[in-house]
Amino acid sequence: IRSDIPKAELVNKVGHSLHVDDPIFRKYSTSRKVLEMVRDLGYKAPVLPQSMYIFKQPLIGGAVTSHQDSSFLHTTPRQTCLGMWLALDPATLENGCLWVRPGSHREPLRRVFARSTEEGSPHFVDVNMDIKASPAVAWEGELPASEGDGLRAKGFIPVEVDAGDLVVFPGSRAACFAPARK
């Protein structure tokens, strides 16, 4: 831990089950408004498997590399993961906003995060590496050089939002976060 930074500014992530443990988070995430929106998108019996706060502190936490959320929140027989990201503060290029690759939600899932009985620790299992035409496959799990320009060259666009904006996306879409610069 860096002693030159207050502990509260070192936090990167809190959660994975805030909808279970925090009454305010539960009230929002299970509200009629959220449920109606999810049902309007075609989800018949939505289940909330994960919730968290992700802090974008300057120089803390780093990048989140190219990934599909359905790799971690995998459902069968078809992918039904739906991500909802509510910005509590403005998200900009300077503070590490979300980047997405338009059209990637129509691609198959590339990898699944799984626990093997032989190895014991979680690891990625390639499930659709025959989709070589995808611009993200060659560098999934890392960021291209010169983050902004490199991300744009790979077909990604930044999603800058204001506080209170909600971004909703299928778990199959490719996304990443560059590290906060400020």
TrEMBL record:
Superkingdom, taxonomy of origin: Eukaryota
Keyword Chaperone: no
Record keywords: Iron, Metal-binding
Alphabetical list of Gene3D superfamilies matching this protein: q2cbj1_9rhob like domain
Cofactor(s) needed for function: Fe cation
Pfam families: PhyH
Gene Ontology MF terms: metal ion binding
UniProt xrefs under PANTHER family: PHYTANOYL-COA DIOXYGENASE DOMAIN CONTAINING 1, PHYTANOYL-COA DIOXYGENASE DOMAIN-CONTAINING PROTEIN 1
Name of the protein: Uncharacterized protein
Species of provenance: Perkinsus olseni (Perkinsus atlanticus)
Top-level taxonomy: Eukaryota, Sar, Alveolata, Perkinsozoa, Perkinsea
